[in-house]
Amino acid sequence: MSALSTKVFDDYDEEVSYEEVNKIIRSRALKNGSDIEYLIEWKDEHVPTWVPFDYIAKDVIVEYEAPWWNTVKKSEETILQEVIKSGDKRDIDPMDEFGLNLI
């Protein structure tokens, strides 16, 4: 069991004032496949929080997703396998708002 799986994380609360994003820790697709949430590590004292895609600056998402998408685009199978096996819990089968696979 990883250290991340033993921690409790908050869900996003629109009433709370969050500070700047430190980094994205991981991603997950919602059960109905309608959206993606990212686990955000904050620069302030907030515990990591699951935040819907629409509430995160796109440049922050690009920074997190770029290594994955660059590998997929290059189709370098050995590097792609390393990314998949890295254990970072990245959602490797994301879907867009129409339910279509993004790859």
Automatic annotation (TrEMBL):
<dbReference type="InterPro" id="IPR000953">
    <property type="entry name" value="Chromo/chromo_shadow_dom"/>
</dbReference>
<protein>
    <submittedName>
        <fullName>Signal recognition particle 43 kDa protein</fullName>
    </submittedName>
</protein>
<feature type="domain" description="Chromo">
    <location>
        <begin position="17"/>
        <end position="69"/>
    </location>
</feature>
<dbReference type="InterPro" id="IPR016197">
    <property type="entry name" value="Chromo-like_dom_sf"/>
</dbReference>
